[in-house]
Design brief:
The structure is a homotrimer of 318-residue chains. By secondary structure, chain A is an alpha/beta fold. Chain A contains twelve helices and nine strands. In chain A, the strands form two sheets. In chain A, strands 7-6-5-8-9 form a five-stranded parallel beta sheet. Chain A has a four-stranded parallel beta sheet with strand order 2-1-3-4. In chain A, β1, α2 and β2 form a beta-alpha-beta unit. Chain A starts with 15 loop residues before the first helix and ends with a helix. Chains B and C meet through β2, α3 and α12 of B and α2 and α12 of C.
Chain lengths: 318, 318, 318
């Protein structure tokens, strides 16, 4: 089954069977990463350009490893060091790079919607690697892959998301994806860190984490950006930690088989205690491992699509 | 025909048949960039080192894509992050890297002549990727390739260069190359932005762009560095734009088949208006596409020369 | 003979036959670097991650060239640009990267012992590329390789180390390695730049370089960090240069066949004069060339070990 989309911009756009197809592909590619020779020729001769207008080591490295294990050539353009500093527009930078015949752009940008605007203006495949407070679809997909791997299903599970949901593209992509896949999503945070449209998104709200824990199959802890305190959205990190931090005694209120997730990087002792982050219920490092597999799947499907389109064009021209 | 030169330092050095050989090679390699698998094994096992002492995303990425599509391994040394900061001389840095057995150095430096001085001190091939206000030969070559592609010839054409010619290595390489290939070059700019030796270089001067436009087959617009205003070389960007900016009404005075070029990055609304930059006569993005092809040709010819020299040495030693 | 170690952390740990095995391997791999096609498929599909928490162009590039000539895929994480800035611990960064299934970490860190602490917490092979004032084993190995290449032996040679031994991981690794291999090591520096434990390390001390020179087969000159003057450990660079700088007249007191080494980058005119650095007795650039060979050997042996371990595990599981 060839993937029909040119771009992967967000989980909002995807149908259930498309999400299933991406996750199936990721599960089948995952095994490559534990071989002695971790490389397949699938994307040989393809050009993948990372366009990161926000700093990111973790996501960029994950995409880069995924691309090179599929034999693609990769290039990295950082927003700060690029021609942007000479006053060039974002679209001009993109059009210039497009003229060098790349196959896939992987774009991270602080402006919500930036990858969408660019994708509409280029024939090159665009993968959104995080846009503002909007979406981070590869993170949502790797989180769903990890839940599926550990729980065997998504449908009917209760996923508790704890933390700064209002500012989190990770939460947003998870909510959109989990809803489609039939999971029940409960959000828990101080009111200042909750968005207004949660009920419209099909999310239940709970202000006391201890009340929400007993029902949860999955506890997804979000990173707390320390700048939220300067923005007066929080009294203090210590207060947040006491009320919402997931520690061992709090985790004891959840089911024994509940899993604990975190998109990283972890603020140890703030939103999660070290013994929980490193404990038997934590699947944080499985998320990282699955991140490479999900990104291999996305690059494979985008690259395959490109080949299919090119092949179709060749056939037409014959 | 093997290329005899160890280095590509400037268009001043090249004979007409050498320029033709590079452009022929570029035209024949260009097609690789539109294949589904954009990679040939020509430079497999070759080591290409980017030594950029001035920031550049655009040119470095173009060279890097060219090198990897020929299967070379590439390394990037930035002037600011290198051992230079520890007080090492430029020549010591080069000698150190030379001892790691690279095949080609691609050098950008703010000092005019720096690549020439280094090339004389190393057996490694040196490609000048821009030195001070001196030369930018790969840009000159890609511009000539684009003109040739669009106009079918260089000989007898009138090329109008508009802008800050005094400080432009792009203009300098183009003037040197176009003169050799039989084109007529006309320069147009405020007197403060024209070099003194233009007539010696065989260039005609015109201070009013509107008078020069009707004759032009090619209008090459140069980027205006905004720092020229601080240097008191310009009254204001707005004044410059009014007198020398290429906009739609001004372009209407040129031939219908005249093409508009710009080396990028574009200052939209200063030296060129958006409707001209994106209009039907603009070949700005073709220049970028041809840039990869020209750089593939240079790397191929330098790398081939290296192989030829090594093969010759092996034969001698037998 | 498969290499049994998971990690290469320092020369203190290694037995004589292990050092000999690494150097033998380096001598046999060195020839690859002068081939026309400088690439072998030995580490194809292996993932090598550079984790540099101190800036280094020279050592990183040497390791990177070594890795790519063995066909490994490499990734570079700089300490300053990484998630560390978001408050993540060093161990969390490592565990995250570990979850992406790399084969080898190459770590440089300003804290002595950092690579050792990490190596104990990860199944991934760790190569120490320099830790604080502790060890720089690949430098010690490339120095021994160069001495062996030029002198035919290490046993019984007198190696004079001149300079800031107290703060030098290069000196420390050389002392540990040379001692094991049977060389006599003499240290010469102002008392403020000598560590207290030299005699425990089996090193003879000499405060006057002119007295030590006549006996030396090898003169190893260390780089003088200019910050030592601000730390009041030196009266002035000029004074240091007069008393300890290796210049032509001073070198005339040594044997004619004595070789001069320096780990680079060189402070010309401070610890070494230009005519000595570039003179016939200097082997400084041979050190750089051998650096690539030694790093190829380390990566080959670590990568091979990894394969052997994986193969052993597969056999067990059958």
């Amino acid at each position: 089954m060839p993937f029909k989309r040119k771009d992967l911009l967000g989980l909002r756009d995807l149908a259930v069977d498309e999400i299933e197809h991406i996750l199936d592909t990721a599960f089948s590619l995952k095994e490559i990463n534990t071989r002695s020779i971790k490389k397949v020729p699938t994307l040989r001769g393809k050009t993948v350009i990372h366009l990161f207008y926000e700093p990111s080591t973790r996501t960029r490295t994950s995409f880069d490893i995924a691309a090179k294990r599929l034999s693609a050539d990769t290039y990295s353009i950082a927003g700060s060091s690029s021609s942007m500093v000479k006053g060039e527009t974002f679209l001009d930078t993109l059009k210039n790079l497009e003229s060098m015949n790349p196959d896939i752009f992987i774009i991270r940008h602080s402006a919500s919607g930036a990858p969408h605007r660019l994708a509409a203006r280029t024939p090159v495949s665009v993968i959104n690697a995080g846009d503002g407070m909007h979406e981070h679809p590869s993170q949502g997909l790797l989180d769903m892959m990890t839940i599926l791997e550990k729980k065997g299903r998504l449908d009917g599970l209760t996923v508790l998301i704890v933390g700064d949901i209002a500012h989190s593209r990770v939460a947003r992509s998870n909510i959109l994806g989990l809803n489609k896949m039939g999971a029940r999503v409960v959000a828990c945070a101080p009111p200042t860190l909750l968005p207004a449209d949660l009920s419209l998104m099909g999310v239940e709200v709970c202000f006391k984490v201890d009340e929400a824990l007993p029902d949860a199959d999955v506890i997804m802890v979000l990173r707390l950006q320390t700048e939220r305190q300067q923005q007066m959205l929080l009294p203090s990190l210590r207060e947040y930690s006491i009320c919402y931090g997931i520690n061992r005694s709090r985790l004891a209120k959840a089911r024994e088989d509940a899993i604990v997730m975190h998109p990283g990087p972890v603020n140890r002792g703030v939103e999660i205690s070290p013994d929980v982050a490193d404990g038997p219920q934590s699947v944080i490092l499985d998320q990282v491992t699955n991140g490479v597999a999900v990104r291999m799947a996305l690059l494979y499907l985008m690259g395959q699509g490109e080949s299919s389109r090119a092949a179709a064009q060749r056939e037409e021209s014959v």
